[in-house]
Amino acid sequence: MKNDQWTSKIGFILAVAGSAIGLGAIWKFPYMAGTNGGAIFFLLFLLLTIFIGAPILIAEFIIGRASQKDAISSFRQLVPQTNWHILGYMGVGLSFILLSFYSVVGGWILSYLWRSISGSLTGLSNDEYGRLFSGIISSPFEVVFVQFLFMLLTIMVVQGGIQKGIEKASKYMMPALFILFLILVFRSVTLEGSSEGIAFLLKPNFMNITSDTVLMALGQSFFALSVGILVMVTYASYLSKKENITKSAYTVVGLNILISLLAGLVIFPAVYAFGFEPSEGPGLVFVVLPAVFNEMFFGGFFLFLFLLLLLFATLTSAFSILEIVVAAIVKGEHRKRKHVTWISGILVFLVGIPSALSFGVLSDFLIFNRTIFDLADFIVTNFGLPLGALFISLFVGYRLPRKLVKQELENGTKGLGILFDLWYFSIRFIVPIAISVIFVYSLGWI
């Protein structure tokens, strides 16, 4: 049956940008930059996202738009009677696992947002902010309850489909995200002592380049663009043949880089202005930032804005992840969407409960010396993303006919000329080698 379609190009771009701009850009990028040299990490992330991440994003767009099918059916449509559809099953499975622990972090954000509204996040000491975070994530009832609320919000949007659900929500949430970011950036960079934080993010020290920094930046570009789990295959399957997917891809890449930059400009100037360390790691958002905002004039209000922004970004990513699962089951039969969305969403919630409890009652339950949350994260981030991206590059570069690939890229354009040859060379040779390096590194083999 025929897929639903985006009503406009801007609707597609905002939805895809919303998928990519989630915890990766706002939560993970600042702490990765903070622990890997600041400006030099940002520079490497910028270059690798443009030259490695973007070609993979375009490859996923080609698969989805050429087939007009979901993540599994797309491979059956393009290369029937082969086993490439197994890659589709892998993407759907990884998306299910990803959302099961992603929703846990989404729940934490809801907990913090409620506390910011009630006023209980202001006036605490730095140590008390650390204890508050530990107390929240170790409380069995609270973490499961807020995870359920996060999944409920996700289900309610995705059940509406592409036009009435995801696209409509993204058209409001993404512009709101940019406006909130600009307000917070202005407040942060105008703080006394913020210039050191700005320099940390924007003035690279090339002495800080190491092999680890390069590999971490490459991994961040994959995570931030949501490539490797076929999110963009599913979204592109709803795209008209008239649209220029190359231009759309680089628009999304540009928005993703911009949001990462803005996140850094919100966090690092404030961190330096109030004497905190940029290398606090994953707790930067949940422990350090509340303490930073507590020192600001109207800090409670600005903290509320930041948490609301983070919730918007996290939800738009969750929409796309759940959509992969739903689309693979519905297969264009729209009457099934609401029913399938609720069943899929509830199953994701149930599977995610052990991850939610990993910092409390199940903290001592380890598999391969990892908590359930850490294991789920490892399977997706260190195994699924690079492996999925590698197979996507090989599929488009070697299995799809060059003529079909070029035709899809040139739909909606006046021809790409040498740009197509450069991209095609990259997707066949440069990208697979780069992904192989990061995959091997993530497994600790080098």
Describe the structure.
Keywords: Membrane, Symport, Transmembrane, Transmembrane helix, Transport. Pfam families: SNF (PF00209). Belongs to the sodium:neurotransmitter symporter (SNF) (TC 2.A.22) family. It is a multi-pass membrane protein. This protein is mostly helical and 446 residues long. The protein has a single domain (9-442), classed as Amino acid/polyamine transporter I, CATH 1.20.1740. It has helices spanning 9-20, 23-35, 39-67, 73-78, 85-118, 126-137, 140-158, 161-189, 195-202, 211-225, 231-236, 245-273, 288-294, 299-330, 337-356, 372-399, 402-410, 418-442. The radius of gyration is 21 Å and the shape is globular.
Order of helices and strands: HHHHHHHHHHHHHHHHHH
The count of helical stretches stands at 18
CATH superfamily: Amino acid/polyamine transporter I
The CATH architecture comes to Up-down Bundle
> How many β strands by DSSP?
0
Overall outline: globular
Pfam family, one: SNF
InterPro entries: Na/ntran_symport (IPR000175), SNS_sf (IPR037272), YocR/YhdH-like (IPR047218)
Main location: membrane
Membrane topology: Multi-pass membrane protein
What's this entry about, in short?
The protein has 446 residues and is an all-alpha fold.
